[in-house]
Amino acid sequence: MTKQECVNYIVKELEMLYPKTPIPLEHSDAYTLLIAVLLSAQCTDKRVNEITPTLFERARTPQQMIKLSIEEIREIIKPCGLSPTKSKAIWGLSNILIEKYGGEVPNTFEALELLPGVGHKTASVVMSQAFGVPAFPVDTHIHRLMYRWKLSDGKNVEQTERDAKRLFAKALWNKLHLQIIFYGREYCPARGHKKENCPICFAVNGRE
């Protein structure tokens, strides 16, 4: 199977398995998505979704968030891990959104990546899912699968993102990155991976 045949097969298989791609993190707008994605760093989406209802009941806008103390935010989000850093980032970015953007989440990569606690991956998720701008956020699942499928060398997530954007049509990026995540969780885990139970790995790599 050539690399292009591999790409075509993956796109076809994922579209068949996951024709619909709901965003795993529960949110209601760009701001709540931004906060949820920030919280998901080194934390499962399931755990984030257990925490955010309590947080958003107290504060679902930047204006409401800065009325909480950093310590109050920290207590709520503690189960997500890294709560000292994340609570400061949430309060800090909320304050910046009010002062610089009228309380709205900016819709450029550059502006998002200047916010506290917001890296390129978080910015990419917000740009793709909140604003519909083509992006290819690379998480651990995508990084792992691109390497297993021999579509990237696995050196770092930056290279994986460049390879993904080069190989897959831009119109597919926003849906495809979610499809790959769903596939990684269901068929291609980091541990206990069995190629015979993983149709794409089996098709791409055979029995090698």
* Count of distinct structural domains: 2
- The CATH class designation of the largest domain is Mainly Alpha
Radius of gyration: 18 Å
What's the helical proportion of residues? 55-70%
How confident overall, as mean pLDDT? 94
Q: Indicate the low-confidence ranges by residue numbers.
A: none
Separation of the first and last Cα atoms: 13 Å
What would CATH call the homologous superfamily of the largest domain?
Answer: Hypothetical protein, domain 2
Number of strands: 0
Q: How do the helices and strands follow one another from N- to C-terminus?
A: HHHHHHHHHHHH
β content, as a range?
A: under 5%
What kind of sheet is the major sheet?
none
Give the class from helix and strand content and strand pairing. mainly alpha
CATH architecture annotation name of the largest domain? Orthogonal Bundle
Please state the overall shape, judged from the principal axes of the Cα atoms: elongated
CATH topology description of the largest domain: Endonuclease III, domain 1
Multimerization state:
single chain
Count up the helices: 12
